[in-house]
Amino acid sequence: MNTTTIFVSCVGAKRPHPCAARDLYTSSWFLKARKYAEHYGTNWYILSAKFGLLLPGEIVEPYDLTLNTMPSSERRQWSMKVFEQIRQQSVHKTVEILAGEKYRSYLVPLMEKDRYKITVPMKGLGIGQQLQWLSGSTYF
């Protein structure tokens, strides 16, 4: 039985109206990452710059915020908030993260200290390589 939880980062491209978080983000990267997460994860969540940890079915409004431009102090606060949300959810101790360095840098050490086993399969890949990796997965 697969007991991996997958985290997928939010993206800038969004629908212009409130909807389920899984449907809010519209980039090709997110759509491929979502399909991967739905296929391979026991459960999955979205790492939202504004809301923190989102369940895919949560209804949210579009927003314009990214960790990529946040100062490190704000990213650290965001990571502590997300870590508390993770602890409140039934997140398995085996986690796969599909998110960039800015989303992981402070969050991963918090999780590792709490004995989460974390993999980042696309670590170090550029966006084109990530799209290729997601497209090359066996579920397509």
Please trace the helix and strand order, writing H or E for each element.
Answer: EEHHEEEHEHHEH
How far is it from the N-terminal to the C-terminal residue, by CA?
21 Å
Provide the spatial order of strands within the biggest beta sheet. Answer: 4-3-1-6-7
* Major sheet details: 5 strands, mixed
Describe the structure.
The protein is α/β, with parallel strands linked by helices and 140 residues long. It has a single domain (4-135), classed as Rossmann fold (3-Layer(aba) Sandwich). The chain is built from 6 helices and 7 strands. The strands form 2 sheets. The protein has a 5-stranded mixed sheet, sandwiched between helices. A two-stranded antiparallel ribbon has the order 2-5. Strand 3 and strand 4 form a beta hairpin. The longest helix has 17 residues, at 72-88. It is globular and about 35 Å long.
Keywords:
19% strand, alpha/beta, 140 residues, 39% helix, two-stranded antiparallel ribbon, 7 strands, Rossmann fold, five-stranded mixed beta sheet
Q: How is the topology of this model organized?
A:
Blueprint: E1 4-9, E2 19-20, H1 21-24, H2 28-40, E3 43-48, E4 52-54, E5 59-60, H3 72-88, E6 94-98, H4 101-104, H5 107-113, E7 117-119, H6 127-135
Parallel strand pairs: 1-3, 1-6, 6-7
Antiparallel strand pairs: 2-5, 3-4
Helix pairs in contact: 2-6
Summarize the structure.
This protein is α/β, with parallel strands linked by helices. It has helices at residues 21-24, 28-40, 72-88, 101-104, 107-113, 127-135, and strands at residues 4-9, 19-20, 43-48, 52-54, 59-60, 94-98, 117-119. The protein has a single domain (4-135), classed as Rossmann fold (3-Layer(aba) Sandwich).
